[in-house]
Amino acid sequence: MSRDLSLFRFPLVGPAAWAVITYLYLPIVVLVALSFNAGDSALSGWNGFSLRWYAAVAEDHDMLRALANSLIVASVATTAGTAVAVLAALGTSGARFRRQSAFEAMIGLPLIVPDVVAAIAMLLLFVALGLPLGLASLMLAHTVFAVPVAYLPIQARLQGLDPSLGEAAADLGAGPATSFRRIVLPLIWPGIVAGAMLAFIGSLGDVVVSYFVSGPGATTLPVYVFSMVRMGITPAVNAVSTLLVAVSVTLLLISYLLGRRFR
Questions:
Q1: On the CB side of 9, how many CA atoms lie within 13 Å of its CA?
Q2: Using one digit for the tens of pLDDT, what is the confidence trace for 93-122?
Q3: Could you give the 3-state DSSP secondary structure of residue 7?
Q4: Residue 144 near residue 110, CB atoms below 8 Å
Q5: Tens-place pLDDT, residues 36-71
Q6: Which helix (H) or strand (E) covers residue 207, if one does?
Q7: How large is the C-alpha radius of gyration of the chain?
Q8: What integer best gives the mean pLDDT of the chain?
Q9: Is the pLDDT of residue 230 over 70?
Q10: Minimal CA–CA distance to 192: which of 41, 88, 67, 113?
Q11: Residue 163: how many CA atoms within 13 Å on its side-chain side?
């Protein structure tokens, strides 16, 4: 007789799981709710529904400029990082080679090193190279972190492919480029999209690295919001934070739906 060994059937496991989920998401729910609060203080009680703080965000030209910088940096870093990640994944998914594990560990190293340490290292490198701090330095720094983020889902997708597909394509006369374009790329496309979206979200929300390597006129939205919070939390911070949450959730939902469609 088969028995259901689901962990949720054990005592207290289910309530504990729901408690953890509530702890993780309740602050976000409160943030979203307070972004529509008509009160003048971000921490005040509910004073009625209002869109005034979203209007305030739309009228804040400095914030809009910071948002534009964030979108530009995230787009460039995601494109470049994903392209490098695809090449790296293709190189490590075929036949095993000497010290492959060390190579894969080096790809993921930026995710392990503390953000402050990585940011200081980037800053010192740019200063040593004489590269002015601005959008270019931000793009380069964010690309470094986009590569390992995009690499993981792409590599996982490649690992699930049947090696005989490439062999069959070669037997039919398809070259490496044709085989990749007609067979491999369509199959790993969901992994590429998932990796790119994760890299974009990570770049869009980065504070530490952006704070160190950005220069005058290249402030990103998270750094701008961080500066606002240091001077006191205003309801406008709730509104712009809600917009960032909405963007992140939308991208993750798209990634999830694509994964289900091409599974």
A1: 4
A2: 765 666 677 777 888 888 888 989 999 999
A3: helix
A4: yes
A5: 888 777 666 777 888 888 898 888 898 889 989 999
A6: none
A7: 22
A8: 83
A9: yes
A10: 88
A11: 5
| Distance, CA of 178 to CA of 144 (rounded, Å) | 29
Question: What is the Cα–Cα distance from 210 to 233, expressed in whole angstroms?
Answer: 21
The answer to whether 148 touches 103, Cβ cutoff 8 Å, is: no
Q: Tokens for 134, please give them.
A: 């601005």
Cβ atoms of 119 and 140 within 8 Å: the answer is no
Backbone conformation region of residue 173, classed left if phi is above 0, alpha if psi is from -120 to 50, else beta: left
**Strand pairing partners for 37?**
49
- Alpha-carbon gap, residue 198 to 255, rounded angstroms: 9
Spatial CB neighbours of 70, under 8 Å, sequence gap ≥ 6: 203, 204, 220, 221, 222
Question: Closest Cα partner for 221 from 202, 240, 238, 234?
Answer: 240
Distance of alpha carbon 31 from alpha carbon 248, whole angstroms: 15
Section 145-166 average pLDDT: 82
> For residue 54, which amino acid is it?
Y
| Cα distance between residue 199 and residue 104, in whole Å | 18
Helix/strand/coil for 134: coil
Alpha helices, DSSP H only, in the chain? 13-34, 52-59, 61-93, 100-112, 115-129, 135-159, 163-171, 176-179, 185-204, 208-213, 221-230, 235-261
What integer pLDDT is reported at residue 126 of this predicted model? 93
